[in-house]
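SAMPLE LOG
Freezer: B-3
Tube label: C17
Construct: single chain, 147 aa
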Amino acid sequence: MATRVDPFKGFNFIVSIEGMSGSAAFSEVSGLSTDGDVVEYREGTDKSLWTRKLTGLRKHAHITLKRGQSANLDLWAWRKNVLDGTPDRRSGTITLLNEQQQSVLFWKFSNGWPVKYDGPSLNAKGNDVAIETLEIVHEGHDIEAGG
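STRUCTURE (predicted):
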């Protein structure tokens, strides 16, 4: 009889970014994906009616982080460095935890910097939490299994 293995739940995670102490309290992470171009190729002497599919440039999506706005301005300070022309590339890790709070998967990105910052949408008629959003461009990420 096969043992049933349930998938991990997506709400239990930690984000850590180099040089930021309060970076773990995010409510949402997206953009942990890769994509690639397809190069279609056909030689002039090729008698086939079909093109060959070759691998082209590979791309990593921007990582988007969302969290409730607080007095912690680490994300804004990082973005401000870039806006002021100071190169500020950092690496980071998104860690998925299981129900026992053990690390099970790690997405590690490298040489990232904030390409976009969105402050919260404010509305006096609502009671939503003020959410700030940071979009990070990076030079690649890898996935590792936890121990």
